Amino acid sequence: MSDDPITSAASPRSDRPVSVGGGSLDVRTSSSDMAGATATPRLAAPARPPVYALVGNPNCGKSTLFNALTGLKQKVGNYPGVTVERKVGTAYSQHGQPIQIIDLPGAYSLAARSPDEAVTRDVLLGRRADTPQPDRIICIVDATNLERNLYLVHQVLDLGKPVVVVLNMMDLLAQAGLQIRLARLQHALGIPVIPCEAVNGKGLIELKLALSRQDLPLARHAWDVPAPIAPAIAELQASLHQNDGRPPLVARAEALLLLTDLDAVRVAGSSPLSVRTTEILQNWKKRWEGEGIDWAGALVNSRYEVIGRLCAEAVQQAGATGPSASDRIDAVVTHPVWGWLVLGVTMAALFLSIFTLAQYPMDWIDGRVTALAEWLRGAMPAGDLRALLTDGVISGAGRVVEFLPQILILYFFIGLLEDTGYMARAAFIMDRVMSRVGLNGKSFIPLLSSYACAIPGIMATRTIEDRKDRLITILVAPLMSCSARLPVYLLMIAALFPAGSVPVLTKVGLMMGMYALGTAAAFGFAWLFKRTLLKGETPVMIMELPPYRWPSLRSLALRMLERAGLFLRRAGTIILGVSIVLWFLTAYPKASAGMPPEQQIAHSFAGKVGRALEPVLRPLGFDWRIGIAIVSSFVAREVFVSATGVVFGVQTDSGGNLLPLRDALQRAVWPDGRALFTPLVCLNLMIYFVLAMQCLSTTAVVRRETNSWGWTLFQQVYLSATAWLVAFAVYQTGRALGF
Amino acid sequence: MSAQFQTIIALALVALAVALLVRGALRKKKSHGHGCGCPTDEFKARLKR
């Protein structure tokens, strides 16, 4: 098949040196270049930093390499599909020249199936009017999975751009008993192939040297397009160029994609095909169907044949074959029985750490916050400013800061589980349950992210191909207990169980129960939606289990620092602002002098609102003061803690000293003297917060991602109604049973 | 510090908090893109330069 026009057309481009950016030459295709045969070097436009696109399969270390090159901090996960946002950064070559790098979402193929893969395809094909087509491409591949990763590289080479291949995870390659003949691979491809360990920073100098090259060669890229398909590609390429205005090499790459994916509309994406091109495509498909030719399969197989030959030459098995250490660990952690046990123990260890390790720093912060409030009370004369600072700022925003240690421990564990590779195993185990409720396996990662925060979780749903599955995942994601609920749970557990009254494992069990309730509710609603509003088939999950790795402590520390900064910024902005406003609403209008603080709040604006809401909340066991806190926490869930601090935290003991918030809650009573925060009410408040949609930022992201006010409103209504109904049922049943 | 002066300062702080919260709610969030994988306008402008 060497005389195939496509094959022979691609070959002459092999060693042509070209340059981009800071140099004087640039690669542009011209109309004379119709067959995709040549990339004509011509004088470049005024110098600007060359734009590199960073592409690769999910979970091949792309984000780590991007961080290492650009120094930007971003989330690096150890499971597929973490990069849903495109990131841009500036790296510097070995000669100090700036290089723009666009980090594109992970993709297995340019025949995109999901919205994030479509972004990668569209940027590389130059379809996005708002993004320049990259001058050059860095293809990062997982060296331990060369054959699978080279499929995307093979498609990228069709674009006729200078490409640098980065073989990442070389350390794991040696552990897997494999060797790659770099020289042979580099010679076969005709482009630089750089071995690298992005996580350790090894190979970066060599990579930067390659990126600095003015004469980066084009690939020696020849492959035999199956003979029955080749004429169709030539005809489609010509039509795409003439009728659809695609540049020649892009036209060829797009023609190949049109004949790889059964769904032409999906390939065309936001650039619909012209009538003529559609006709050509339909005619060829009809003809092949008549002849019984599997055209899509033929193209894919032909690529894999080339890759297979390349890998057979370049990859050597250096050591004895047999199950790797990862395989042996997986035999246990993905086992149908032991896997669940490992997952349960891991989660228990997480929550145990939150309760035990965080206690000391929490007590320390609590002591400092209380001491500061006491000092202010002594240092300032009585008045509104003192009340604002002590009852609003310190009792409100200050109390939220106490929960920083727990938030950090949560993120440390999440980071640890991601970086070691365990998260992907947890996804694998959970898929058994998720498939039963009809959820897409790909939904697990967005749902898992939602344990930290629903916003990145909802954004991560862009990896889900099916629109209905994506919508279901968005609708149920806020039910996963996010870190903002943690302070609420902890405060309620502290109020429920005075210090030392129960073993810590009881608290751990209760906390795990709340997380389990949220997860069960998410699965339950997904099951319901899948069978009613958003009916559809349950897709099969195909997931890659990455090898286990030692986590990078630097990466974990950076992530914890980032989260600490975000949490403190939130405490210092939104929560502080709401606390100040809430203080005003609880302090005005002023009651007559000498009135106790509780009566002042009842007399205030907030008290009036709370009392207006009480008929709705009383059946749940909540009084008007809890109502104020619930309404305030519609802004963000943590505000519940600051609001209870403002509303209840003004209590003092017999010596006139401020009480810790949990003690203040334990002393709060109904007008008839009954305790307000009974065990049943504390439990009910936790259940309410598990189910209720109390986060304006999440609502805004849902609106943006669904592009629908209807679905946004539906989510708000169904979650709020569920929270109220379940809390009502729990409280009334509890009361009936004598609790 | 007199009680009246404290009241004035406290109310000014409340007004400031309200203003900042409203501004935060109305202000367009700055991000790497437009939520669809597109680059920011600043980045596009930088490329054009």
Structural account:
The complex is a heterodimer of chains A (739) and B (49). Chain A is α/β, with parallel strands linked by helices and 739 residues long. In chain A, α4 links the parallel β7 (136-142) and β8 (163-168). The termini of chain A are far apart. Chain B is mainly alpha-helical and 49 residues long. Chain B has one domain (3-48). Chain B is rod-shaped, with a radius of gyration of 20 Å. The interface between A and B is medium-sized, with 38 and 30 residues.
CATH topology of the domain at 5-217 in chain A: Rossmann fold
Q: Which regions of chain A are unreliable across 5 or more consecutive residues at pLDDT < 50?
A: 1-46, 73-84
Largest interface: A-B, 38 and 30 residues
From the spread of the alpha carbons, the general shape of chain B counts as rod-shaped
Q: How far apart lie the N and C ends of chain A?
A: 82 Å
Strand composition percent of chain A: 5-15%
Number of domains of chain B: 1
Q: Tell me the name of the CATH class of the domain at 5-217 in chain A.
A: Alpha Beta
Q: Which stretches of chain B are low in confidence, meaning pLDDT under 50 for 5 or more residues running? A: 29-40
The biggest sheet of chain A amounts to: 6 strands, mixed
Can you count the beta strands of chain A? 12
Structural class of chain B: mainly alpha
Helix content of chain A: 55-70%
Number of helices of chain B: 2
CATH architecture label of the domain at 5-217 in chain A = 3-Layer(aba) Sandwich
Sheet-strand content of chain B, in percent, reads under 5%
Look at the structure and name the CATH superfamily of the domain at 5-217 in chain A. P-loop containing nucleotide triphosphate hydrolases
Shape of chain A: elongated
Structural class of chain A: alpha/beta
Strand order of the largest sheet of chain A: 5-6-4-7-8-10
Task: Describe the SSE topology.
The complex is a heterodimer of chains A (739) and B (49).
Chain A: H1 5-10, E1 17-18, E2 25-28, E3 40-43, E4 51-56, H2 62-70, E5 87-92, E6 98-103, H3 115-124, E7 136-142, H4 146-157, E8 163-168, H5 170-175, E9 178-180, H6 182-189, E10 193-195, H7 204-212, E11 216-217, H8 230-242, H9 248-258, H10 264-268, H11 275-291, H12 295-314, E12 315-317, H13 325-333, H14 338-356, H15 359-379, H16 384-401, H17 404-420, H18 422-436, H19 444-450, H20 454-459, H21 467-476, H22 486-496, H23 504-531, H24 553-587, H25 597-603, H26 605-617, H27 624-632, H28 639-648, H29 661-667, H30 679-691, H31 696-706, H32 709-736
Parallel strand pairs in A: 4-6, 4-7, 7-8, 8-10
Antiparallel strand pairs in A: 1-11, 2-3, 5-6, 9-12
Chain B: H1 3-26, H2 41-48
